[in-house]
Amino acid sequence: MSNRREQLIALGGVFEAASLVDRIARTGQVPTAPLACLLGSLLVRDPQSTEEVYGGDDLNLKDGYRALASALERNNVELQREPLRYALAMIALERQLAKREDMLQVIGNRLGQIQQQVAHFDVTHENVIAAFGALYQDTLSTFRQRIQVHGDMRHLQQPDKAATIRALLLAGIRSARLWRQLGGHRWEMILSRRKLLDALYPLLRHTA
Fold this sequence. Notes:
The chain is mostly helical. It has one domain: HflD-like (YcfC-like). It is 70% helix and 0% strand. The chain has helices at residues 3-27, 32-41, 50-53, 62-73, 81-97, 101-118, 126-138, 153-156, 159-181, 188-191, 193-207. The longest helix is centred in the N-terminal third of the chain and has 25 residues, at 3-27. The two termini are 20 Å apart. The relative contact order is 0.21.
């Protein structure tokens, strides 16, 4: 697997999380399969491949690929503005997190505890989602720069929906960290759009 393809899978994870955050904020609904894929990615340690982080393939990242493609194509008609805003904010937050070894240690320890919960509950169980959401709230949401989620207040004010959004933001930031570890840079999204799109279109066709 080429390094660019691995980078795009990880970046697809960022945009998939952003798309799901937007969807649940607007509709209150979130598909189980991609939710389970992203939450599961938080518990994968020492993967042998990038695809392994997302359950062995990238089929649950198709909405993320679409959102990423719309951003790179700069098509104002199809541009998914909120998912793009959330994705860029998650990438920025990951850069801040990378400088905080203390916080990374806390996150690692708490994820180990959540892993034990998953032994008894499914990864999408409300208790597990609440634990992921609380971890995000106790760590990343303490940064001065916060991600403001826009949507229907009827959904945003429900504790279970709010916890799911926070859990997805945590998963998106994990994907952003993986993307950067694979050599991804934000400037590539501006200066290398055509190269990224040329590598992204086969992934879109594969997951369609």
